[in-house]
Amino acid sequence: MSLKDSFRNIFKGGKETVAMAADEYFSVLLESDVNYETAEYIRDQFMKSFSGVKFAETDQYISSMKKIMSGILEKAVPSMDILKTTDHPCIILMVGINGTGKTTTVAKLARYISSHGKTVVIAASDTFRAGAIDQIRVHGENLGIRIISQQMGSDPSAVAFDAIEHAKARNVDYVIIDTAGRMHNNKNLSEEMKKIRRVSKPNLVILTVDALAANDAVEQAGTFLKSIGFDAIIVNKMDTDARGGAIFSIAHQFSKPILFLGTGQGLEDLHPFDPEEIISGIFP
Ligand SMILES: Nc1nc2c(ncn2[C@@H]2O[C@H](COP(=O)(O)OP(=O)(O)OP(=O)(O)O)[C@@H](O)[C@H]2O)c(=O)[nH]1
Ligand SMILES: [Mg+2]
């Protein structure tokens, strides 16, 4: 059930104490893929907003929840605009565990940037997975964007380096580097990622997370944060997250800006992160 529907069901039983309402909200949050720490934070804030009060009106409960949850998302609104950069070329490194939508997001971002009149080159630095180079090449052909690649198994850092050299030589505005989907606990892959980072000196490292993986995503991203580091997040597969709680965990746990939301498999399915849109979907 969606957060919106579950929240609506809470007060069907009639008048409730603040503590009862807090507990009900808490269980709904957990059931809707909000992770434990974030749900606890919300409950604490809720209790605080009614300190010294035993009973309140349902409307007051709703409006307190709305304010707390909206505050969580507001903190993740980016202050930067990737179209307004002074770096030239601006080097963007895409990282994330396998299947979270890195390659698709590289293509979506390239489309977004080039549709605003900037030039882009893509580095096919996933030389690890069979088919990865062809996948990004097809996107490049569709978009009319140059892909720099070598054969499978070659050094991903060398591919990134080539793409950056290409951009510098031809005055290309952006370099976007796709990388292999790696397990966060795979040490060799993690070392390789650090090497790509060292060699490419990115201006922006973007982590992709999968809204469906919800609590896993938080844990995975946490491991990434420690080992590689990232500057911003793109949350993918928002279109498939029926419950809608994951975004709150992601926003609350990382204190990193959420640049965009992936809302489908198409290359145009990249939406700016807009807390108000999400909040009004939950509290109509
Ligand atoms: N519904 C939906 N599907 C998505 C979204 N983003 C990516 N996908 C799909 O998720 C699958 C994996 O996407 P990829 O871009 O290949 O993910 P990846 O992180 O590059 O995967 P690896 O390279 O294997 O690590 C593909 O089938 C994509 O079409 C999204 O926002 N919504
Ligand atoms: Mg990929």
Defining key terms:
single chain, 284 residues, alpha/beta, Four Helix Bundle (Hemerythrin (Met), subunit A), Rossmann fold, 2 domains, eight-stranded mixed sheet, elongated, binds guanosine-5'-triphosphate, binds magnesium ion
Write a structural description:
- By secondary structure, this protein is of the alpha/beta class.
- It has 2 domains: 3-74, Four Helix Bundle (Hemerythrin (Met), subunit A) (Up-down Bundle); 90-272, Rossmann fold.
- Helix content is 49%, strand content 14%.
- Strands 3-2-4-1-5-6-7-8 form an 8-stranded mixed β-sheet, with helices on both faces.
- Strand 2, helix 6 and strand 3 (146-148) form a beta-alpha-beta unit.
- The protein is elongated and about 70 Å long.
- The chain starts with a helix and ends with a helix.
- The mean pLDDT is 92.
- Guanosine-5'-triphosphate binds at residues 96, 98-104, 126, 129, 132, 181, 236-237, 239-240, 262-265, 269.
